[in-house]
Amino acid sequence: MHIAATLGESISIIVGRRKWIPEMRENVHKYGFGEKLASFKSIDMGVHDFQRDRNETVRRIKQAAQEAKEKDGADVIILGCTIEFGFYHEVQAEIGIPVIDASIAPLKYAEFLVEINQKFGWGHSKLYGYQSPPNEEIEAWNLF
Q1: Is the pLDDT reported for residue 115 higher than 70?
Q2: How many other C-beta atoms are found inside a 10 Å radius of the C-beta of residue 67?
Q3: Out of 15, 76, 92, 143, which could bridge 138 as a Cys pair, Cβ 3.0 to 4.6 Å?
Q4: CA dihedral sign, ordered 4, 83, 65, 19
């Protein structure tokens, strides 16, 4: 969501099954991206279904992405859940808007966070939510 929000104004998330949408929607709002959410699109396929017929999987993803773009006004698509690694490229080329791969994006974001920490010392604020445990706990757990 962080990456998608910097690339466009309106984001749609494509998921395998509708049952995954409520929890994902809750997370979108919890992390402050509710205003950017255009829609969720389900392709009615489970994780194992993605592997059975690659052409059908790609067809459904492209159809959902095109609908999200045309009907919901999305200008960025996220391939949510465990939708196939690498499909983003083919979908992105066809629909002409950024398509975020949910396998690549977190890795690149983590690399970015490590880089800015190493180069600039920017990391999580320890003032409130990301406080380190007290030294006594660290020592008790042998975490040094």
Answers
A1: yes
A2: 15
A3: 143
A4: negative
